Amino acid sequence: MAKTKEIKTEPLEKQLWKAADKLRKNIDAAEYKHVALGLMFLKYISDAFEELHDRLDKGEGDLVGADPEDKDEYQAENVFFVPAEARWPHLVAQARQPDIGTHVDAAMDAIEKENPSLKGVLPKVYARQNLDPTSLGELIDLIGNIALGDAKARSQDVLGHVFEYFLGEFALAEGKQGGQFYTPRSIVELLVNMLEPYQGRVFDPCCGSGGMFVQSEKFVEEHQGRINDISIYGQESNQTTWRLAKMNLAIRGIDSSQVKWNNEGSFLNDAHKDLKADFIIANPPFNVSDWSGEQLRGDARWQYGTPPPGNANFAWLQHFIYHLSPTGIAGVVLAKGALTSKTSGEGDIRKHLITDGNLIDCIVNLPAKLFLNTQIPAALWFLNRNRAGMDIGGHTGITVGANNVGANNHLPLRHHPRIHEILFIDARNLGHLINRRTRELSHDDIQQIARTYHAWRNPAVIPAQAGIQPYQDIKGFCASVPVERVAELDYVLTPGRYVGLPDEEDDFNFPERFAALNAQFEAQLQEEAALNRAIVESLARVKV
Q1: What per-residue string of b and e applies to 458-478 under the rule 16 or more CB within 10 Å gives b?
Q2: In b/e form, how buried is each residue of 315-327, taking b as 16+ CB within 10 angstroms?
Q3: Would you say 301 and 280 are in contact if contact means Cβ atoms under 8 Å apart?
Q4: Which residues contact 210 (CB under 8 A, 6 or more apart)?
Q5: Which residues of the chain have pLDDT under 50?
Q6: Which H/E stretch holds residue 91?
Q7: What sign does the CA torsion over 45, 48, 51, 52 have?
Q8: Which of 125, 128, 102 is nearest to 38 (CA)?
Q9: Judging by DSSP bridges, how do beta strands 439-440 and 409-410 pair with one another?
């Protein structure tokens, strides 16, 4: 019986990306990004509007007598009101017209006028001469096939996933420029899985396109928590990137009212001066030299030392600490140089963070090639305001099954058990290449690192039945190190200094290995001799 060839269907988002990328033609990815993502956003809000519009039109139950064109009805349901000229069916009807770009720009403008929270957010780039109207019409048809006929929840899920995938693909296409708005997903997932933001205020003062917030909400959903238990706060200095964040969050139904933009940035114009966050998740730009340090010499945020004007790394760390609540915890990405630098007082600041502040919980050394915009080695810093042992409720990240305490109950975290220790994790050997230039962490990699941290941090509450082993040092991977030992090494925080080299079984048999190499060498000599004889015989047959 002949075997039938199995046909593998690509995921929807990959099919859409390939199709959309073909339509891009001569437009730069940085520009085309706004064309594609703007249309996806328009499709999402139109789908959500149409679904509620149909319910209002039918007027059943509580909606008897409701007016489907009353804006207040949509506001009450937290749905954007879409005027007639901006609804997706209207744009599809115009998709083959040569002035389709003008229609889309007008639709974006109309939506902003009807929805103040979107003012200045939506792209109006569709009537530009370098955008071919035929290609734009084809893209509208393409995006129109997403979640066709589905209710709002399904549309939100599918479009949100596709939007996120496109952000990542555009970031890859743009290379260094893409890294300005996009933190690779595996890094965000690792930060979120280690911090576990189940409840409270989540803050990112350099939020890019909002990926940290999206993953935080996903984390809560996946653990059957309540999305409304967390609130998000953000700031972004690049207005174009801020617009992407607002769309990315809106398409997920996440309240972005506290995601602010100003071009001065978080240091000069802190949009959330009084905020004390429960969680800070951030990937600030590495080694920034023009951060206005000279203007901020006496700033109240520099509790552990004045950062040098030529590098913002320790300014970012202290900015995060300033915004942490008394029990808050932060997970941030920094250039690896911040682990060892001693120039311009940076070594003293790091020392004070460890000794005076007792703030550093964990350092994770990351693999190379994870970031799109830089080849600078990076590490994760986890700063914990609760290391002094304040008695609080918390989570371990372990959901106890129905046969144990009760489904979906999270065990409480009480006193921090390792007040005078720092956990070092060396993850440089983890991850896999997705292309020649870029590496990412797998789901198993992320779980290995996160579980190590949680087992270390919560030794008294890790149940054997949860599948997590009690913490122990693993040579070459992790080590729990007393602060005194860190002091002996002059407060250098490079994990490799502490975790050592991995134990490897010494099964090397010299006689066997020598015999094998000798045999291989003899075989190569015989093959070379045979080739030389063949060459001599061939030359002898050549007549000059």
Answers
A1: beebbeeebebeebeeeeebb
A2: bbbbbbbbbbbeb
A3: no
A4: 234, 244, 245, 246, 248, 249, 254, 256, 259
A5: 1, 3-7, 148-149, 390-414, 465, 505-506
A6: helix 88-94
A7: negative
A8: 125
A9: unpaired
Q: What angle do CA 415, 426, 194 make, to 5 degrees?
A: 40
Long-range contacts of 405-408 (CB under 8 A, 24+ apart): 408/223, 408/224
- Rounded CA gap, 530 and 74, in Å? 84
How many CB atoms are located within 10 Å of the residue 417 CB? 15
pLDDT of residue 6: 47
* Alpha-carbon distance values, 496 to 175, 340, 379 (Å): 29, 12, 12
Residue 20 has a pLDDT of 84
| H/E run at residue 434 | none
**What CATH class has 185-389+418-497?**
alpha beta
The radius of gyration of the chain's CA atoms, rounded to the nearest angstrom, is 28
**Phi, psi dihedral angles at 361 (to 5 degrees):** -90, -50
- The distance from CA 114 to its chain's CA centroid, rounded to whole angstroms, is 32
Closest CA to 394 of 427, 361, 423: 361
Q: Which pLDDT score, from 0 to 100, does residue 327 have? A: 93
Where do the domains of the chain lie? 12-174, 185-389+418-497
With CA atoms as reference, report the closest residue to 255 among 225, 300, 214. Answer: 214
| Residue 63: CA count within 13 A, CB half-sphere | 18
In whole angstroms, what is the distance from residue 208 CA to residue 244 CA? 8
**Structure token digits, residue 260:** 């602010």
User: Which amino acid is residue 296, in one-letter code?
Assistant: L
Q: Which amino acid is at 299?
A: D
Supply the angle between the helices 29-58 and 133-144 in degrees, to the nearest 10.
Answer: 50
Two tokens, residue 91? 């744009």
The answer to whether the beta carbons of residues 266 and 238 sit under 8 Å apart is no
Residue 518, both tokens: 């000798």
Give which of 236, 246, 300 is closest to 274, Cα–Cα: 300
pLDDT at position 151, please?
A: 53
Report the pLDDT value the prediction gives residue 219, as an integer from 0 to 100: 84
The token pair at 346 is 């940076």
User: Which of 165, 182, 141 minimizes the C-alpha distance to 37?
Assistant: 165
Do 185-389+418-497 and 12-174 have the same topology in CATH? Answer: no
Q: Does domain 12-174 have CATH number 1.20.1260.30?
A: yes
Per-residue DSSP letter, 5: P
According to the model, what pLDDT value does residue 21 have?
Answer: 85
With 0-12 / 13-18 / 19 or more C-beta atoms within 10 angstroms meaning exposed / middle / buried, residue 30 is middle
Instruction: Tell me the DSSP string of 117-170.
Output: GGTTTS---TT-TTS-HHHHHHHHHHHHTTTTT--HHHHHHHHHHHHHHHHHHH
The string of DSSP letters for 46-87 reads HHHHHHHHHHHHHT-GGGTT--TT-HHHHHHTT-----GGGS
Q: What is the SS3 assignment for 394-410?
A: CCCCCEECCCCCCCCEE
CB environment 392-414: b (16+ within 10 A), e (fewer): eebbbbbbbeeeeeeeeebbebe
